[in-house]
C-alpha cells in the first residue's frame, strides 16, 4: 500500500501541467542545456517550437550483395527468351496459347544452397552462381503435367544450360500431373450441369446457372481433387451470387445443392455426373433427383441471399466521439531503422537481415543477425492448410493448400494508415506470370512502433524505472481466396523475434441442414463450418555456428527430501533436461500446461556460468494448432507436415522445403513427401532445421459475420544467449526519483522528447496514390490472363487476380 502511494504521487507529478520536466532536453527545441553529468537536464524558458525536421535520406548500405533477392526484370526477360529458343520445350507464347499448348508458368530465383551461400556470407568465398527456377506446363499431350527446370548460371551466356530440377523433390523428379488443364471446358461443363436442373434451381431460388450474363447462382468445387485410376472426382455446390461487385462474400452464400462429377481425361464428352445431394439425401442420377424433387412431400429449404449482413460497410449505432481522428503514430525525428532498398537489407537496433521473395510463399528472411552474430539463416512460410469437416460432401472434402494460389502472387499493395502506419517504409514485390513481370507496389511495409506497454518496469519506495517496449515489424498481406493472411515478423529490443499470422476475411460456410455437430447455426440457413488452420514455417537457426543440438527442458512435479526438511518429503517442481538426438524422436507437440521448451544450442558453446547459449522456440499465443484429422483422405500423403506442432531435422541441400505447391495437384503422389525426411539421422551437433506450425481450431459463430479474425504467434527467444538482457542498452528508458510527493530527478540516458511542431500532413494516408499492379511484358506479347491456379476455380475469379 505504501508503494502505491508513492506511485500515485509520481503519477500526479507526471500528469501535472508541468509535464515538460525541467530535466528533459530535445534537439528540436531551443534553449535547453544539460547538467555536467549529461543525463540530468535543467530547464530554461522554451522558445517558440520549431517545425520537426529530419534528413529523409537513408545511406544504409548492405555489407554484401543480396544473393537471395528476386530476379530482376532483365534477368527474367533474358531467361524467358532463352527458354523460347529451346526447341525441345515446344513453347507457345502465353498470349497465343490454348489449353493444348506448352507454356512457361514460372521464372524466379532458385534459392542458392546453404552450403554454397554460407562461405560467401561468412566472408570466406565468392557469391554462388545465380540460377533461375523455371516451371513449364506441358499441355500438348493427353496427360498434361508441369515440370521444373533450372536455368543458369546467370546472366544468360554461352555457359547457361537448361537442366531438369529434381534434387529439391524426394519424389525423384520435379514433375506433377495436371488434372485441371482444360479450365474453359470445365466451366462450360459446369454450365451444362446447371442448365440440366435449371427448372429446379429456378423453383428453389428463382435463379439459374447456365453460363449466361444474367446468372444469379454459380457452382464451386472443392480441392484437392480425388484422383483414382480412371476417375478425377470433385463435388460442386451451388452458391448465390453477391449483389453488385463479385467478391468472396459468396463463400457465406451456400445453397445446399451438391453434385458429384468425374472429369477424368481431356475429352469433355466423357465427363459425367455421378449423383446429387440435397437435404441429407443422395440421388445417383439427375433423373432420380428430378423425380424426387417433383414428388409430393419433397422438402425444400430456403436460400442464403446476399444483403447488408454480408457486406463490409459500416453498420450499427454510431459510437460516441468516433468521428474524432483516431490516434496515429509519428516519427518526429525520422525513422530509426536503415534500409538498402536495392538489396532489401534492413538494420534495426542490433538486428540485420536480408529479404527474399517467392511466388508461392511470399517474403522470406535470410541471414538474420543480432549484434553481428547470425542467429537465423532462413525463416519463412512453407504452407497454409485449411481443413474442413461437415456432413455435407463438399465441405467434408475441402483441404485448401494455399501455396498453389501463390502467397507472393496475391501479396497486394498495402493501404497506408490502415494496413500499416502512414509513415511506414514500403517496398515493392514482383513475380512472373504469363510472360509478364507483375509488380505489386508497396506490398511490404516496415515500421517501428511503441507497443503501448513497458518492456521492463520496476518501482521502489522512491524510484520508478521504465523501459519502452519498441517493436520493429516487417509486414505483408496475402489475399488468398476468401481469407487475407497478415504476416508479421516482429523484432524486439531483447533480441527476440515473433512470427505472427492474423487471418481475416469471409468464412467458407456450410448450408445449415443437418450440420449441428460440425458448426454453430449463425443464420437461418447458414452454419459456421468448423475447420483447422495449420500454417507451416521453416526456421533454420544457426546458434554459435551450424553445429547445433535441440535441448528439451521440462518443468515436472516432484517430491523431494532435502537436508533441511527434517526427513520430510516436500511437494515441489524441478527441471528435467534432455536432448532430442535423433529424427525418430523429433516429431513434437507442445506439452500440457506449457511445461516443455525446446532450445537450439551448441553443446560446445557455453556461457561463463556453464549454461548453453541458445534460442528457444515457444508459442506466444495459445492457438498454435496441428491438424485434428488424422490420416486425412483429403490430404493423403501431402499433409505430413501438419500432424504435429514442431519438427526437428538434419538440414540438407536436398530437403530445402517441407512441401511444394505442386503437392496440391495430386495429394496422393506428392513431389515432396515430408514423412520421408525422417530417416533416423542423428540430431546431435548437426546443422538443424525446425518446422513449426501456427494456426487455430476455428468454429465460426455469429461474430464471424461478415468478416472473421484470428491470430497465432510463435516466439524465437534468447535463452542464456546474452549475459544480461540486451534491452538495457536502449536509451529509450527513464528513471524517476521522487521525494515528498513530487519528482525530483529524471534520468533519460541520452534520449530526448520532441517538442517541435509536427506537420500531420506527413501521416495522412495517401489513398489516392494506391497503384495496384504494374505490368511489364517479358516475351514478346502482353497478356492479361491470370496466372495458372489449376484447382482454385469456379464460374468466377477474384477481382485483381
Automatic annotation (TrEMBL):
Active-site residue numbers: 402, 483
Domain Copper amine oxidase catalytic: 328-727
Annotated cofactor note: Contains 1 topaquinone per subunit.
Record's keyword annotation contains Metal-binding: yes
Domain of life: Eukaryota
Gene Ontology molecular function: copper ion binding; primary methylamine oxidase activity; quinone binding
Residue ranges of every copy of the Copper amine oxidase N2-terminal domain listed in the record: 75-156
Protein name: Amine oxidase
Originating species: Coccidioides immitis RMSCC 2394
Lineage of origin: Eukaryota, Fungi, Dikarya, Ascomycota, Pezizomycotina
Amino acid at each position: 500500500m505504501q508503494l502505491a502511494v508513492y506511485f500515485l504521487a509520481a503519477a500526479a507529478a507526471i500528469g501535472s501541467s508541468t509535464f515538460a520536466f525541467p530535466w528533459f532536453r530535445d534537439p528540436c527545441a531551443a534553449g535547453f542545456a544539460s547538467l555536467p553529468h549529461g543525463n540530468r537536464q535543467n530547464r530554461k524558458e522554451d522558445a517558440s517550437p520549431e517545425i520537426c525536421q529530419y534528413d529523409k535520406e537513408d545511406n544504409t548500405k548492405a555489407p554484401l550483395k543480396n544473393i537471395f533477392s528476386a530476379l530482376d526484370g532483365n534477368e527474367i526477360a533474358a531467361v524467358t527468351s532463352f527458354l523460347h529458343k529451346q526447341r525441345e520445350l515446344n513453347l507457345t507464347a502465353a498470349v497465343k496459347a490454348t489449353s493444348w499448348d506448352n507454356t512457361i508458368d514460372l521464372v524466379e530465383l532458385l534459392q542458392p544452397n546453404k552450403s554454397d551461400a554460407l562461405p560467401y556470407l561468412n566472408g570466406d568465398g565468392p557469391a554462388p552462381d545465380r540460377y533461375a527456377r523455371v516451371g513449364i506446363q506441358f499441355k500438348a499431350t493427353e496427360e498434361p503435367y508441369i515440370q521444373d527446370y533450372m536455368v543458369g548460371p546467370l546472366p544468360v551466356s554461352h555457359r547457361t544450360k537448361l537442366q531438369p530440377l529434381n534434387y529439391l523433390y524426394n519424389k525423384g523428379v520435379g514433375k506433377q500431373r495436371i488434372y485441371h488443364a482444360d479450365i474453359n471446358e470445365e466451366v462450360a461443363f459446369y454450365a451444362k450441369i446447371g442448365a440440366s436442373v435449371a427448372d429446379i434451381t429456378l423453383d428453389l431460388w428463382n435463379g439459374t446457372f447456365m453460363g449466361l450474363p444474367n446468372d444469379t447462382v454459380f457452382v464451386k468445387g472443392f480441392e484437392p481433387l480425388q484422383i483414382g485410376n480412371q476417375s478425377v472426382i470433385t463435388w460442386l455446390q451451388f452458391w448465390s451470387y453477391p449483389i453488385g461487385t463479385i467478391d468472396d462474400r459468396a463463400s457465406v452464400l451456400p445453397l445446399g445443392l451438391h453434385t458429384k462429377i468425374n472429369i477424368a481425361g481431356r475429352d469433355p464428352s466423357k465427363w459425367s455426373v455421378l449423383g446429387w445431394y440435397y437435404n441429407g439425401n443422395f440421388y445417383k442420377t439427375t433423373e432420380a433427383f428430378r423425380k424426387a424433387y417433383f414428388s409430393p412431400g419433397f422438402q425444400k429449404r430456403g436460400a442464403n441471399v446476399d444483403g447488408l449482413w454480408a457486406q463490409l460497410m459500416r453498420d450499427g449505432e454510431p459510437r460516441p466521439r468516433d468521428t474524432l481522428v483516431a490516434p496515429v503514430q509519428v516519427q518526429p525525428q525520422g525513422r530509426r531503422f536503415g534500409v538498402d532498398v536495392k538489396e532489401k537489407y534492413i538494420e534495426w537496433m542490433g538486428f540485420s537481415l536480408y529479404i527474399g521473395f517467392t511466388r508461392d510463399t511470399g517474403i522470406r528472411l535470410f541471414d538474420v543477425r543480432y549484434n553481428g552474430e547470425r542467429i537465423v539463416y532462413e525463416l519463412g512460410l512453407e504452407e497454409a492448410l485449411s481443413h474442413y469437416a461437415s456432413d455435407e460432401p463438399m465441405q467434408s472434402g475441402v483441404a485448401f493448400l494455399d501455396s498453389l494460389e501463390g502467397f507472393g502472387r496475391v501479396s497486394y499493395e498495402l493501404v497506408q494508415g490502415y494496413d500499416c502506419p502512414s509513415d511506414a517504409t514500403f517496398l515493392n514485390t514482383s513475380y512472373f506470370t504469363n510472360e509478364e513481370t507483375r509488380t505489386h507496389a508497396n506490398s511490404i511495409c516496415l515500421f517501428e512502433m511503441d507497443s503501448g506497454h513497458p518492456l521492463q518496469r520496476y518501482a521502489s519506495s522512491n524510484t520508478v524505472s521504465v523501459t519502452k517496449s519498441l517493436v520493429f515489424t516487417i509486414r505483408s498481406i496475402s489475399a488468398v481466396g476468401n481469407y487475407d493472411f497478415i504476416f508479421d515478423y516482429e523484432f524486439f529490443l531483447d533480441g527476440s523475434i515473433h512470427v505472427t499470422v492474423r487471418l481475416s476475411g469471409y468464412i467458407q460456410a456450410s448450408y445449415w441442414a443437418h450440420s449441428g455437430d460440425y458448426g454453430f447455426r449463425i443464420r437461418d440457413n447458414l452454419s459456421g463450418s468448423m475447420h483447422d488452420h495449420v500454417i507451416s514455417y521453416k526456421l533454420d537457426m544457426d546458434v554459435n555456428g551450424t553445429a547445433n543440438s535441440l535441448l528439451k527442458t521440462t518443468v515436472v512435479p516432484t517430491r523431494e527430501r532435502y537436508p533441511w526438511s527434517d526427513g520430510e518429503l516436500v511437494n515441489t517442481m524441478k527441471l528435467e533436461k534432455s536432448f532430442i538426438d535423433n529424427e525418430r524422436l523429433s516429431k513434437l507437440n507442445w506439452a500440457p500446461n506449457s511445461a516443455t521448451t525446446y532450445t537450439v544450442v551448441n553443446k560446445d558453446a557455453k556461457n561463463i556460468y556453464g549454461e548453453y547459449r541458445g534460442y528457444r522456440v515457444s508459442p506466444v499465443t495459445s492457438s498454435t494448432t496441428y491438424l485434428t484429422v488424422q490420416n486425412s483422405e483429403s490430404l493423403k500423403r501431402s499433409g505430413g507436415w501438419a500432424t504435429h506442432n514442431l519438427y526437428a531435422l538434419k538440414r540438407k541441400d536436398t530437403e530445402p522445403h517441407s512441401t511444394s505447391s505442386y503437392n496440391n495437384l495430386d495429394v496422393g503422389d506428392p513431389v515432396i513427401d515430408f514423412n520421408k525426411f525422417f530417416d533416423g539421422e542423428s540430431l546431435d551437433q548437426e546443422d538443424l532445421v525446425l518446422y513449426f506450425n501456427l494456426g487455430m481450431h476455428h468454429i465460426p459463430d455469429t461474430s464471424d459475420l461478415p468478416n472473421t479474425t484470428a491470430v497465432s504467434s510463435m516466439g524465437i527467444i534468447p535463452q542464456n544467449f546474452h549475459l544480461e538482457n540486451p534491452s538495457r542498452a536502449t536509451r529509450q528508458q527513464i528513471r524517476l526519483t521522487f521525494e515528498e510527493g513530487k519528482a525530483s530527478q529524471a534520468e533519460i540516458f541520452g534520449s530526448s522528447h520532441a517538442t517541435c511542431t509536427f506537420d500531420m500532413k506527413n501521416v495522412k494516408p495517401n489513398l489516392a496514390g494506391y497503384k495496384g499492379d504494374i505490368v511489364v511484358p517479358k516475351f514478346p506479347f502482353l497478356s492479361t490472363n491470370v496466372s495458372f491456379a489449376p484447382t482454385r476455380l469456379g464460374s468466377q475469379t477474384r477481382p485483381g487476380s
